[in-house]
Amino acid sequence: MMASGIEQIDAESVARVLLADPDADTRWMAAETLARSRARLPLGVIQRALGDPQDRIRALAVRLAARRGPASFPLLVPLVTQRRWPMTQSAALEALKRLMDEEGHLLGGELRVLLTGIADMDPPPLRAERPGLEAIARAIGTERLRGQLGGSEPERLGAARLLLAEASPSALRSVSGLSEDPSHEVRRAAAAATHLIGQYRGTSRSDSPPGPASSSPPAWALAAEQPDESDLISSLARALTDPEAAVRTQAAAALERIPHRMLADWAVESLDGGSAEAAAKAAAVVEHLRVGPAAEALMKRASGLSAEARAPYLGALSALRLAPADLAALVPSVDPIHRQEAVRLAWQIGGRAVPPFLRPLLEDTAGPVRMAVMEVLAESGEPAAVEIAQNLLANDSSAAVRATAVYTLARSEPDIRLAALSRALADPDPDVRATAVEALPRGLASDVMELLLPALQDPDERVWQASLRHLAALPDHELPLVWAALRESPPAKREELVRSIERTDPDRLSALALQNVHGVDPADRVLATELAARAGTPESTAAVVAALSDPDPVVRRTAASAMTTLRTPAAVDALTRSLADPQVDVRVEAVRALGMIDDDGVPPVLIGTLKDPELRVREMASEALTRWHSPAVARQLAGSLGLPDLRRPSGDVLAKMGQAAVEPLVEVAAGDDVEAAAAAGALLDRIAGASAFAASLSSIDPEARLRTVQVLGAIGGSVAADALLEALSDPDVRIRAKAATLLGGMGESRAVKPLRRMFLSDPVSEVAAAAEAALRMLGSVPQASGDLRVVEDVTENMAEPPLD
Amino acid sequence: MDPAGAPSLGLSELRAALASPDPGVRARAIRRARPEPGVQEALIEALRDASADVRRATVRALARLQGPRATRALIQVSTGDLSVSVRAEAVAALGKILEARATDEGGPCEGQDPAD
Fold it and tell me: Which residues does A386 contact at the CB level (< 8 Å), separation at least 6?
């Protein structure tokens, strides 16, 4: 393989070896060949090479990346902090520094990645890494890095570490100014910077930084300060979590020999401002060694965490075995925004002995704290809890606290409970009122239950919804109360209540309906009928059917209307009877309901209804029949064209049905009933037109042609006449005869001449007779039929037809 | 001076001994190393020795030195060494260093007689 000067096409082949060869030495040779050449590989290829399992090959890939200039920064920047691959890291540090010196600066996002990576380095930058980072810091520029010291924590720490590595007096002063930084690591960097500044002063150096050729120790060497007590305790604390008991025992023994004051100071500092890891280590030490002075810091830390993250701190607090009063006394020290959690934690750790000592916190200015205390008092069964809750309900300024008090009172003695809930339902805050209703226990006593009805009338949705849920869940023997609620509710709430009942137990809807379907008040019977239809059980359906015969017309109309929901064939007879109801509305609803029932008995009934004296009933029947849109219904309608009183309304429905009605109408048009055929012909003309049938005269089926001729005759008009004139020359005797007859009947004068010809020349006497009859109908009677057929010159006298 | 009274080793002798393939030789050499420039670095390098006995001996030697780099090395070993005994040794050493510092700062440990 050529070591250098390879062409681009060869570079691609070598790159394939680099990416795919299973032998590491071969891949390394490929990488080295490419590195020596001037080949510029695609960034995608380079990125894959940077993922090689061999560090030395990755390092060569870094050189290939650097050849792509600043475009390679996104690939190189993350490598600068990857200690897992030291050769690659070193190559990346060198390449990045050179690129920044010669070709361009890091973009904002790239700098953030770099600073975050450096901040994540644990331990902080090592001796071998610092010269490279120092060079990078100089390439970035201290001004730009100082600007990052005001950023978020990881970037701030990364910038501080780079400035510390750069170690110019101005950089160190910038970092030393972070001694109050909330991040422990940043404060450590600040302390190191302060230390370095002191070193410079101690050697009487000027303000200029030490150059690379200086005989003074390099900045990183000076930064290798003695680990302080905090570092040592932290190391021992970490050893407390070692997987091996021998190490843990050794660590515990070492920590026990240290003054507790020192441990407490360290623990408090770690818990107050340390990272999660540092604080967890402090909690472990406190737990093992019972460092009492750290209790307050533990409580503060635990209160601000999620329940999942609290375990180490709760364990430590428990291990301290504080007296209940001391445990409760920790709560006020916690920040107000987390104090309510501290209340619950004190209760959780100390148990029933603690709540009495939490009572002073009922005076806390924060509502959530008072709420938490109230909850704990109630939960612990504290005898004074009810009295406290009554007082809070009456006097507390916070609606949430009053609502919490309501929860407590809802579980108290009946007398107290009733009075408290009545008061709560009159509270100006809807949350309190809603809570009062929600807090009502299941299986209510009847006196408390009476509160539900006024709550149902509450203007606030949360309140009446809460009442509604209770009502829906009431036991069967309380159904009269549910019925009263339904009766008194406006439609929207009634609908919500019915839905709640349906969700809870659909059979209860049926039970409610059946209990009231025979009520004295027609309004009860109407509502019961509606619910019965909605329940849809066999019993409730029967009740709806029976209601069709109710003496009250509103009930009957409701029942008929409800049948549209049920759609049961069992109701056809009852609904049919309702078609004779004296109330128009009842008949309309009955027709509507029948139209929804899929039963063969329905269409004849609906067709009969087309004769109803009331227009709305007829329109509803027409609408229902049209909606069926079925050939079977169309056939029944077409059959009714023979009845004079149904001819017109049935015809209207058939016209609306359109194509579905054509075939049944053709049958009628070809039938013997002349009037029905004429009506059918007129409808066919409206729906399809005569021309649609004229084409069928070319059918090879003589029966089809004969039926078409009949239909055309029924349709009439010039288009039909044209087609019938054609049919006079049909090969079928019956068709020629029928066409002649129909043309005569239509009074079609244009047919005289062809009819004469037919009369004179048709070989079939039957056809000639038909032509003769037609000519008679047209007023063009032959003088002497026998002679005419013998002597008349057909060709001479056919120019014009005779006038009538 | 070695606890057993054997003559102590300077840097060059120590480095020569550490090149021995025998872990016993290396461990003994570490125990006899005397504090002088360069020894600390040699000991820190010896923390990477394949033998746990050698590393344990190194931990003890570094604990005697108590310099900043030695202490940092012990911190790393206390959590990073694969051998339980080496980690335990490092933890014990760190405890002693911390105890010594606490005593220097004044104030006895709780439960400790101020007269001790």
Answer: A408, A409, A412, A413, A416
